[in-house]
């Protein structure tokens, strides 16, 4: 059974030369090879302003690039987020993108529709792929994956997205054999649409 998949590339470098880009490409290529429909959204290549007030967040009009991203996410059955761990969290460009995309009118019905609080993204699944320099077990054990848990709980689950799977890839500057292993895993996930 094929799926509609949206890949959200959260690396702040638009040049696309990092391991996180290679992982996303491996996933996308494998997914399309078996018939899944894949839409790639690269946050670093989009033009959008930072949100600076509650009023902008709740009542502002999203720019065209964000509306296109919202359409791709709305149409997708499965979302895959790729980003590097920077200063213990996601890069600022990805956070700014998420603030623009996951506005209240996109994620939940308003009181005007008579379904106040209804989660509009319910039924979608997600995978979060985080690369980091430290060993992944250390991030999970010592830092308790706090930023990852916040992303899952306060953004994705809040909107109804689930189940949410994680792939934490530590020591990204290590051996090529280790990198090849992770690229193979991404290809396998892509084929299955997981």
Describe this structure in words.
The protein is an alpha/beta fold and 194 residues long. It has one domain: Flavodoxin domain (Rossmann fold, 3-Layer(aba) Sandwich). It contains 8 helices and 5 strands, in the order βαβααβααβααβα. It has a 5-stranded parallel beta sheet with strand order 2-1-3-4-5, with helices on both faces. Helix 1 links the parallel strand 1 and strand 2. Helix 1 runs parallel beside helix 8. The longest helix has 17 residues. The termini are close together. The relative contact order is 0.19. The model has no long low-confidence stretch (mean pLDDT 90).
What is the CATH class designation? Alpha Beta
Mean pLDDT, to the nearest integer, reads 90
What's the CATH H-level homologous superfamily?
Flavodoxin domain
User: What is the SS-derived class?
Assistant: alpha/beta
End-to-end Cα distance: 12 Å
Poorly predicted runs: none
Number of domains: 1
How many separate helices? 8
Order of helices and strands: EHEHHEHHEHHEH
Work out the helicity level: 40-55%
Biggest sheet features: 5 strands, parallel
Q: What global shape is seen?
A: globular
- CATH architecture verdict: 3-Layer(aba) Sandwich
Strand numbers in spatial order across the main sheet? 2-1-3-4-5
> Which strand-content bin applies to the residues?
15-25%
Query: Per CATH, what is the topology?
Result: Rossmann fold
- Strand runs, count: 5
Overall radius of gyration: 17 Å
